[in-house]
Every structure is written in C-alpha cells, then in structure tokens.
C-alpha cells in the first residue's frame, strides 16, 4: 500500500491535505461556533482591508481574457498544432456549465435578486415601506454582475494557463506547472506542493459547501411536493443517495459519466426554463431581463472598479464588501476546481475558442436564467406580496412555483419535481468532476487517474458534506464557506503569478500564422451556370 501511494500520489499533497481536512472537520463538529466566529472574522477583515485586491485582480482577469481572445495568441491550441477537441461543442459546453455554475444558479436564481431588492446597493432605494419597483432592475443587474463575466474570467485565467502548460508543454495538470517559467524545477517541490494543497483545500471545502446548500434545496423541494420533513435524517439520506449516484458516474468515466449527465441536465434545465417562462409573468420578465442586462453591461466597467469608502458612501461600501468582494473571493477559491476541469476537457481547442465558449456562452445562459427565475421572483414579491424575503433561501424557488401554478397545483408540483431533478443532477456532476480534480491534484497531475482513486474522493466529498451538515449544522457550512473565501486571498496572488508565467512562455511561442486561402485559378473555379 505504501509503495502504491508513493507511485500513484503526491504524498506531500495527499498527506497534508488530508490532515488539514480531518482537523477542520473535527473542529467544525466539536467547536462549531468558535470556528464560525474565527473564519467569519478573518473573512470580514480581508474583505474590508484587502477587498481592493479582489476587485482589481478579477477585473484584470476579465480584461486579459478579452485580450487573449482578440490577440494573435488566440490562435494557439491547448495542445499540439494538429490536435483537435476531444468532445463536441455541445458536450463541452454542457460539462463546463454544469460544473462551473449549475447548482449555484438554481439555488440563487430567485434568492439573490430578492436580497438585492430588500437590501439595495443604492441608498436611494432604502425606504421604510418596503421594496420599490425601481429597485428591481438594479437587483437583477447586480445578480448578473456576480454571476456572469467575472467568475468565468477567473476560471479562464487558471484553465487557460493549465491547459497550455499541460497539453502544449507536456507538464503535469497542476497549478504549480504554470509557475515553471518563474521558478523552474522548484515548481515541483515544496513551493508547488503548497500551491496544490491550497487548491485541494479550496476545492473540497467549496464543493462541500455547495453540495450542502444543494442538499438543503432538495430537502426543501421534497417537503414542498411530498410533505417529507426537513431534518438531518432526510438530509443524510439525500447525501448518501446522491453520492452513490456520483460514484457510479465516476466509475463510468468522463465520456459515459459526466458528459452524458451534463448533456441530459442541460436539456432538462432548458425545459424548466421554457416552462417557467411560458407560465410566468412574461412581459415583466422580458422587460426586466433586457433592462437589467443593459444596465449591467452599461455599468460593467464602473462596477468592476468600484470599491466605495465607508467614509463617503457607507451603504455602498457595506454592500460591496458583503456581496461583491465575497463573491470574488468565493470564485477565486473555486478557480482550481473549475479551472482544472475546464483545462481537462478543453484539449485541442484554440485559446480563442476556449475564451468564447467559457466566457460568452455561460453569460448568455445567466442572463436568461436570472431574467426568468429572478424576474418571476421579483414580480411576485413586488406585486403579489409573496413574502419571499421572509423565507429560507432554499424555499423561495418553490414558493414562486406555488404562485405561478396556483391555477393547477398538480402542474406546479410536477415543475417543482423537475427542479429537484435538475438540482440533483447538478449535484452529481459537481461531485464527479470535483473528485477528478482533487485526484489530479493529489496524484501529481495525472489526467487519467485510476477510477478507484476518483471514487475515493467522491465518497470523501460526500462524507465531508454529511458530517458537517448533520453534526455541525448550517453554522458549520457557513464556517466552511468563510474558510474557502479566505483561501481566495493567497490564490488571487498565485493566479497573478501563474499568468506571469504564462506571459513568459507565450513570449517565446511561435504563433500559428493565419493562412488565407489562395485565389482559385481558372481551372479551379466552378463552371458558370448555363
């Protein structure tokens, strides 16, 4: 066993990561409240004192993604010049979307616009009589701000770097490889191991947090449709069942597992979107969607560079650190997970294809999703007194279904059941892809690890979620989320160094020339029409 671990894992990364995770679990169980206080205090201090670093770095990542797409470097392939994509465009997009956003969009699609409606960024919308209709467009626009260009730019920064060094330069698929142009062989010693340990920490804890939130939403849906109680026993069964399904997907491999489930769920999510649009307040949704998208795009640069001072605008400063800075730290902590998986499935694509597919396509989906689900929630909150703000976040989407299908409760239950299925499959694909990424990080960067190792990490992710949610409760999940956001600070710096390393390598790259087709000769031209 010792020989196997030495040959098939990176003992330093595997051992230290495992020890840190076990220690955190133990503290989370026996001292949940002190752990929550410590992690949230650290997160809040970073947000208020160093939030500007998150703001500037994420804006830089977005600008770099656009530059790489438009520049000559966009013609470089993530692999040899003659390589071609491993997956079809539809399957590739389905996998990147379900991994990078899926479960979060379903959970926050209704909830986040309601938050921004009741606690707006603009102090002019703070009124004693409750939310005002004028705040709806900004509420949706700010949700798009957090779920559109910036998170995907962060993922692209890491995925592009790793895909380049792994598939074009033949280095292991691990974050440390992007540091090779800067520190040489030390990238594969302890400096690189520390980077990989941070990546494992952020991936496992970020996944456990998202899977915990997904479990709460599934339990809420089962309570809503079938009257099943919401308690730790039911949540334990949900986690065990879904982890078992994820295990089967892991054993089936990427092509037969994640790819098929991702494509199926993409179509199911599209069906859900269409049904809700057809039966929802269409005019309000369309108006809010287009207006908020325009407001988002029009304010993209000012909002991206905004870090208000509490001395001049306390409302905006408090809102920014609580929401935007939190999200940037959260997305950066997720970058190793999503970025490595994006790199893994993007072999053979050009950098331009990679950026277009991973930046603009998901943003279009986010606009549609928030426009339909967020727009519905805003409508019922403003004009039907839905009381969504007073509900738990995991229950808000199901309350919207109740109101939308009040004329046919059975149909509403069917749509709610479809929503549960979509969340469940997103849960499975996140667990499956997460186990692949963590195994890649702990085995030294092998992109084709043995299946039992991936299965081990799939079970470990489920176990971490189960232990924290059942024994520590939602406070433990919140502490876990805060700890994940804290890891975003060092990883923001690591990402900047990785891009520095990528820049050095690209400066020596022979970019494939753009060959224009030659003008056909007379005998090559098609015959004239009679």
Set out the fold topology:
Layout lengths: L1 H7 L2 H20 L1 H39 L18 H30 L16 H13 L1 H20 L11 H4 L6 H37 L5 H48 L2 H17 L1 H5 L9 H9 L1 H22 L5 H33 L12 H9 L4 H34 L8 H57 L23
Helix pairs in contact: 2-3, 2-8, 2-17, 3-6, 3-13, 3-14, 3-17, 4-5, 4-9, 4-13, 4-14, 4-16, 5-6, 5-10, 5-14, 6-13, 6-14, 6-17, 8-9, 8-13, 8-16, 8-17, 9-16, 9-17, 10-14, 13-16, 13-17, 14-15, 15-16, 16-17
Care to give the gist of this entry?
This protein is an all-alpha fold. Helix content is 76%, strand content 0%.
Record keyword descriptors for this entry.
disordered C terminus; 530 residues; 76% helix; 17 helices; single chain; Amino acid/polyamine transporter I; mainly alpha
Description:
The chain is an all-alpha fold and 530 residues long. The chain has helices at residues 2-8, 11-30, 32-70, 89-118, 135-147, 149-168, 180-183, 190-226, 232-279, 282-298, 300-304, 314-322, 324-345, 351-383, 396-404, 409-442, 451-507. The model is unreliable at 524-530 (pLDDT under 50). The chain is globular, with a radius of gyration of 23 Å. Helix 4 (89-118) packs across helix 5, helix 8 (190-226) runs antiparallel to helix 16 and helix 14 packs across helix 15 (396-404). The chain contains 17 helices and no strands. It has one domain (9-507): Amino acid/polyamine transporter I (Up-down Bundle), CATH 1.20.1740.
Mean pLDDT: 84
Sheet having the most strands: none
CATH fold-level label: Amino acid/polyamine transporter I
- SS-derived structural category: mainly alpha
User: Which CATH architecture?
Assistant: Up-down Bundle
Order of helices and strands: HHHHHHHHHHHHHHHHH
Low-confidence stretches: 524-530
Gap from first CA to last CA: 78 Å
Helix share bin:
over 70%
How many helices? The count is: 17
Count of folded domains: 1
CATH class, please?
Answer: Mainly Alpha
CA-atom Rg in angstroms: 23 Å
Number of strands: 0
């Amino acid at each position: 066993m010792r020989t196997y671990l030495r040959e098939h894992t990176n003992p330093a990364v595997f051992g230290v990561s495992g020890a840190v995770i076990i220690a955190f679990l133990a503290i989370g169980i026996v001292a949940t409240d002190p752990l929550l206080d410590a992690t949230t205090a650290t997160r809040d201090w970073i947000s208020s004192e160093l939030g500007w670093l998150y703001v500037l770095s994420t804006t830089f990542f977005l600008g770099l993604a656009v530059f790489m797409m438009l520049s000559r470097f966009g013609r470089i392939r993530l692999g040899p010049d003659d390589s071609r994509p491993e997956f079809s465009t539809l399957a590739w997009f389905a996998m990147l979307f379900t991994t990078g956003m899926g479960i979060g969009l379903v959970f926050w699609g209704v909830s986040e616009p309601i938050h921004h409606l009741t606690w707006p960024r603009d102090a002019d919308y703070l009124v004693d009589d409750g939310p005002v209709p004028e705040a709806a467009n900004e509420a949706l626009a700010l949700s798009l701000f957090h779920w559109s260009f910036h998170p995907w730019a962060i993922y692209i920064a890491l995925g592009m770097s790793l895909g380049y060094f792994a598939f074009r330069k033949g280095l292991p698929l691990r974050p440390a490889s992007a540091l090779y142009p800067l520190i040489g062989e030390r990238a594969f010693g302890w400096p690189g191991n520390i980077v990989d340990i941070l990546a494992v920490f952020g991936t496992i804890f970020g996944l456990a947090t998202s899977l915990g939130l997904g479990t709460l939403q599934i339990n809420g849906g089962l309570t809503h449709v079938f009257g099943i109680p919401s308690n730790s026993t039911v949540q334990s069964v949900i986690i065990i069942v879904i982890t078992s399904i994820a295990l089967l997907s892991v054993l089936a491999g990427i092509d037969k597992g994640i790819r098929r489930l991702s494509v199926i769920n993409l179509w199911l999510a599209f069906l859900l979107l269409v049904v809700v649009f057809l039966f929802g307040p269409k005019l309000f949704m369309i108006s809010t969607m287009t207006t908020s998208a325009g407001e988002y795009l029009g304010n993209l640069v000012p909002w991206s560079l905004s870090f208000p001072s509490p001395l001049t605008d306390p409302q905006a400063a408090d809102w920014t650190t609580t929401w935007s800075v939190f999200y940037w730290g959260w997305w950066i902590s997720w970058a190793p997970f999503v970025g490595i998986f994006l790199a893994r499935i993007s072999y053979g694509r050009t950098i331009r294809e990679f950026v277009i597919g991973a930046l603009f396509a998901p943003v279009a989906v986010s606009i549609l999703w928030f426009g339909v689900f967020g727009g519905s929630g805003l409508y019922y909150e403003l004009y039907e007194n839905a009381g969504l703000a007073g509900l738990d976040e995991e229950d808000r989407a199901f309350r919207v279904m109740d109101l939308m299908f009040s004329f046919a409760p059975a149909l509403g239950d069917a749509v709610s059941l479809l929503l549960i299925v979509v969340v469940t499959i997103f849960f499975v694909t996140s667990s499956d892809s997460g186990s692949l990424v963590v195994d890649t990080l702990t085995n030294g960067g092998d992109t084709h690890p043995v299946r039992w190792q991936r299965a081990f990490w799939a079970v470990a992710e489920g176990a971490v979620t189960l232990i924290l949610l059942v024994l520590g409760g939602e406070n433990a999940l919140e502490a876990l989320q805060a700890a994940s956001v804290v890891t975003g600070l060092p990883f923001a710096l690591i990402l900047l160094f990785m891009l520095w390393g990528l820049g050095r390598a690209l400066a020596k790259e022979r970019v494939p020339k753009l060959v224009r087709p030659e003008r056909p000769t007379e005998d090559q031209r098609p015959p004239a029409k009679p």
